């Protein structure tokens, strides 16, 4: 069997004009960067030939870069060492300051403890001294009461010309007769009588009985006068010249009792207490009219009564 084929029918194909430049260059050409003809320079690729470095060049460059890196590392190390020295110095300074501060704190703490101990001792001594002072005041007050247990004070009695103890004793006898004493006061019953700078007259009787009877009659006289709305004991009852002045008679109290009695009278005026009075040098108060009398010995006790 024959394998020969009939050739295909060909049509006429117009021939293309070949390019005027028939020269072909390839990348493998060693003369790519060299123009054969001046007029054909535009048809070449401008490719430069890469120069390969030799081993010596690579070695020299590596050495140069290594030197630079080594110098940089040395410089960096030097800087780090300098910073480390600075930090170490600052750290040592802080440690020293902290140590000194700790010593100072310990010293201050020790001083503080000593100061607290001293304050505690001073407070203890102060309490003991206050107790001693309080005890001494109590003893002094007791002795003053004993010394003044027979003494009274007369206030608001006008001073006379050429006044003497004799004339003062006569005035006391006249007051006793005015208030209605059962027995007249004898000169022998008056141990001493004198006027203070405050114009108050002090009368020291020989017995507490005469003192108490004198004060009792004075209070009874004034109470009756108040109830009858008549003038209470005054200078007119003694036939003294001038305007009538009310006379006041009371026990001669010690300094401590006088202050306490003044506070009690102030509370009576403010209606915090119903009444207050003295008897044998002691201070008594009533919180209300129906309550029992309460003896007070100090301002603390008075404050408790007012609660």
Automatic annotation (TrEMBL):
Native organism: Arctia plantaginis
Protein name listed in UniProt: FP protein C-terminal domain-containing protein
Entry coiled-coil feature ranges: 105-146
Keywords: Coiled coil
Pfam families: Baculo_FP_2nd (PF25298)
Region (Disordered): 1-22
Domain FP protein C-terminal: 255-304
């Amino acid at each position: 069997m024959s394998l020969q084929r009939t050739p295909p029918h060909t049509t006429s194909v117009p021939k293309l004009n070949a390019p005027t430049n028939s020269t072909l260059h390839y990348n493998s050409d060693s003369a790519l960067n060299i123009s054969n003809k001046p007029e054909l320079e535009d048809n070449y690729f401008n490719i430069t030939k890469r120069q390969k470095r030799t081993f010596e060049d690579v070695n020299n460059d590596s050495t140069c870069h290594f030197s630079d890196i080594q110098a940089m590392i040395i410089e960096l190390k030097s800087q780090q060492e300098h910073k480390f020295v600075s930090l170490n110095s600052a750290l040592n300074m802080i440690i020293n300051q902290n140590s000194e501060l700790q010593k100072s704190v310990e010293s201050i703490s020790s001083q503080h403890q000593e100061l607290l101990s001293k304050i505690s001792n001073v407070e203890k001594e102060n309490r003991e001294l206050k107790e001693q002072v309080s005890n001494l005041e109590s003893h002094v007050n007791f002795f003053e009461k004993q010394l003044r247990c027979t003494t009274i004070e007369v206030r608001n009695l006008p001073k006379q010309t050429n006044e003497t103890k004799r004339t003062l004793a006569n005035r006391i006898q006249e007051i006793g007769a005015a208030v209605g004493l059962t027995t007249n006061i004898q000169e022998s019953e008056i141990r001493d009588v004198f006027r203070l700078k405050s114009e108050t007259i002090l009368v020291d009787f020989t017995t507490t009985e005469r003192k108490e009877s004198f004060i009792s009659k004075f209070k009874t006289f004034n109470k009756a006068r108040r109830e009858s709305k008549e003038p209470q004991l005054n200078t007119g009852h003694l036939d003294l010249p001038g305007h009538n002045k009310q006379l006041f008679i009371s026990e001669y109290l010690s300094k401590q009792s006088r202050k306490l009695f003044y506070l009690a009278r102030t509370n009576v005026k403010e209606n915090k207490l119903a009444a207050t009075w003295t008897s044998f040098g002691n201070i008594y108060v009533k919180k209300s009219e129906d309550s029992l009398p309460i003896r007070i010995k100090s301002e603390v006790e008075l404050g408790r009564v007012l609660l």
